[in-house]
Design a protein that fits this description.
Layout (H helix, E strand, L loop, with lengths): L1 H11 L3 H17 L3 H6 L1 H10 L3
């Protein structure tokens, strides 16, 4: 997850602690609403990843 935080920090031009909060918020959202993965990533990949998040 550190790599993802670093990428968000670099690409968004924000401090690492801000990027960590953003990544955690995004992951929390996806865990609460895994059905949104299909919308964000396309039906096939989103459906497969939804299973990983437990729904």
């Amino acid at each position: 997850m550190d790599r993802l935080i670093d990428i968000v920090s670099e690409r968004a031009g924000i401090q690492r602690d801000q990027a960590e909060k953003a990544v955690n918020a995004m992951l929390g959202f996806l865990k609460e609403t895994p059905d949104q993965l299909s919308t964000l990533l396309g039906d096939d990949l989103g459906t497969r990843l939804s299973g990983i998040f437990g729904r």
